[in-house]
Amino acid sequence: MPIPVLHVQHLVKRFGEFVAVNDISFDIRPGEILGLLGPNGAGKTTTIQMLLGVVTPTAGSIQMFGLDLAVHREEILQQVNFSSTYVAMPQALTVEENLWVIARLYGLSQTQERVDDIVKRLEMEEFRHKVTRKLSSGQSTRLGLAKAFLTEPKILFLDEPTASLDPDIAQKIRSFLKEERRSSGLSVLYSSHNMHEMEEMSDRIIFLQRGKIVAEGTAQEIVARFGQADLEEVFVKLAREK
Amino acid sequence: MDARSQERPTRFLLGEEALANQSGEGEKGTMKAHRIYALVTRYVYLYRRSLPRMMEIFYWPFLDLVIWGFITVYLMKFQGQIPGAVTFFLGALILWDILFRAQQGVTISFLEEIWARNLMNLFASPLKPSEFLAATMVMSILKVMAVSVVMVVCAGLFYSYNIFVLGLWLIPFVLNLVITGWIIGVLTTALIMRFGQEAEVLAWSMVFLFQPISCVFYPMEVLPGWLQVIAWANPAAHVFEGMRAVLNTSAEPVTHLGWATGLNLVLLGMAIALFHWMFELCRERGLLVRIGE
């Protein structure tokens, strides 16, 4: 079995008395897309924030590329990126300016070529000089993805990347992600409330509820284990359980 | 979406091998110039097309100068009672504005990130808090340079005032005031980070807490004894006392500058340590990603 690029062990996050993430452990293997599923407030976002180093875990360890995030934050984050529907890029800058800032932040070489390449691949040419606040939600999502892919990360955290997109663009984004995974061996932690998308995209899924992992496996395994017709029914059943 | 025509290597590097092969490699713990440059570029992009932001640099310092200039012209009628009124007031005003803009350069840069909800993008990248602070300090220097040019030129044109009457002492005075501005800026930023956007008013008000004990427009001796003790711990008070010593007696303000520099170094170190402590506290409490929500 290949060595995991992400290894999470007994991760806990408490905010005072409230336990947001409760002793979870999981791995992501090279080139794998791991789905992170769960109702609102299940701890998905807190988990991703801990993996990105912006929230400190109360207990447990996070290792990426065999290195401890708490010790090697800078080195690890150089090879990691994220995109979230809920985290926008600075609104007063143009699309291209935002990408240039990111390229410089990560110390990328051949910046112009890379920016041109990602703009072309995500079909952003027509709005590359537009101020970000004037973008449609679909265009904003593409900018978020462009920012994430520009740095050619080895691990990518995607928080509902296709929320607010029309089905056509959403399908294009999914195809783009699959192609990226195929061509670069990218590993992805993928969070979404779209169950069909989860089934289509994820090699494995972990289901979080009230901060704990309550199910883990392929979509088919999870559906079979809970005796439901599909992942959506499993979601509803688990989300409604006390 | 266009698929990538050429495939990239899929081999993953682990541990030390990954460290050695990543871009931007270098000694651990050192600041990276490209990340500081990235942030400065971002702020320059912001200012380039924003009239309100440009006004902050040019309009307010200009108004300050006009108002205080007229007050000074009025006071000149009493030259006998207040010798060197023009030099004192306009010189003090320009130097105070340098401190104020240096503080604003640090704090407003942080507020820009809150307003843009960009802290998550920044601190989920390899950017270090120290690099962030360094970038805000570079911005502060750029702002101070712009404001100084505006004020010095306007003072010369409208009131025939030459700040360079302070001679070469002007250089250490300005440097010390910029550092004092950074101290207040870093302190304010740490408080805004900890207490959230409701505390953003501190960005404009905190510096005025230091103004009475900076003795900008009056000598230290007018303060009550107990306040003088506090004022002596303020590096800016030593600078303004030094300025008056040069203008009044042409004495060399070496002692004042020594105190100002020493206090600045100690207080800047403390302010940066406080910022780092607040940063870690905010990461622990999950506040860093919630500021501005």
Write out key terms for the chains shown.
heterodimer; A: 242 residues; alpha/beta; Rossmann fold; six-stranded mixed β-sheet; four-stranded antiparallel β-sheet; 9 helices; B: 293 residues; mainly alpha; 11 helices; globular; disordered N terminus
**In what range is the share of β-strand residues of chain A?**
25-35%
Q: Return the CATH topology of one domain in chain A.
A: Rossmann fold
Rg of chain A is: 18 Å
Class from helix and strand fractions of chain A: alpha/beta
| CATH class identity of one domain in chain A | Alpha Beta
What order do the strands of the largest sheet of chain A run in, or round the barrel if closed?
6-7-8-3-9-10
CATH architectural group of one domain in chain A: 3-Layer(aba) Sandwich
Main interface: chain pair and counts = A-B, 60 and 51 residues
Q: What string gives the helices and strands of chain A in order? A: EEEHEEHEHHHEHEHEEHH
Number of helices, where a helix is a run of at least 4 consecutive DSSP H or I residues of chain A: 9
Radius of gyration of chain B: 22 Å
Output the number of helix runs of chain B: 11
The number of strands of chain A is 10
Estimate the strand proportion of chain B.
under 5%
* Helix fraction of chain A by DSSP (H/I, runs of at least 4): 25-40%
